[in-house]
Amino acid sequence: MTSTDSPKYTLLYHPGIPGRAEFIRLAFEATGTPYTDLANSASDGYATVRNTCIDPAALSSLGDNPPVFAPPALQVSSEGKGGGDLLISQTSNILNYLGPRLGLVGEDEADKLWVGQVVATALDLNNEVHDTHHPIAVADYYENQKDEALKKTTDFRKNRLPKFLGYFERMLKWNEKQQERQANRGMYLVGSKLTTADLVVWQVLDGLFFAFPSEMKARTEDFGLLLGDFYKSVKTEKGITGYLESERRMKYSMGIFRHYPELDRQS
């Protein structure tokens, strides 16, 4: 939930798109943790984001914090060196920081490591999805690389996507056996409660359903536990249901997940 009462956490990212910051928003929303989404909540918020995170000449950021390569970044009040604010970046790094503090990691050290490996794998998939529509040059328009995008996406849908989906499906089956939770079939990837692994995988799946609806529908039979039970169950988690129905949940547009019909399965 966002807040105007100076919460401890401030999220710095581009305005108007879910992007890589959405994984972090989901962690806050799932746990009811107040945060400020700076670029989407203040008229001059994005100017602050640019000055803090997108200045190629900066030798430091927000006081004595090191430079940020690119958003998202997370500002944590009074947790930095000398009592100042802490500024950290990179999605996986931010989730590693927040997980234990928000109760979104496993119950022991092994679970924490397994959660981390699932998160890292899902973020790899997230990056590959982006490359389907920008396979040659990130800064160029999709329209200038459409032929290459079609070749890239065809290989992605045929080879890469089922490999990732198969891994997450196997994780669910493994955890189902570990937990002996037949009544809650396929609810969690690691352990017996929601973790950042569930949130990150769910967000990537949701984006894939938007970007490649025909492909994902065709894959549902092969990966029913993942694309059926798991995908539906995360949406019912406390905090997530309300968030998805709120205006805070931004629509997919020109970010990572884009729907180009010509890149989707055609039959």
Notes on the structure:
The chain contains ten helices and four strands; from the N terminus they run βαβααββααααααα. Helix 1 packs across helix 7. The protein has helices at about 20-30, 40, 45-55, 90-100, 110-135, 145-180, 195-210, 215-220, 225-235, 240-245; strands at about 10, 35, 75, 85-90. The protein folds into two domains: about 10-100, Glutaredoxin (3-Layer(aba) Sandwich), CATH 3.40.30; about 105-235, Glutathione S-transferase Yfyf (Class Pi), Chain A, domain 2 (Up-down Bundle), CATH 1.20.1050. The chain has about 270 residues and is mainly α. The termini are far apart. A four-stranded mixed beta sheet has the order 2-1-3-4.
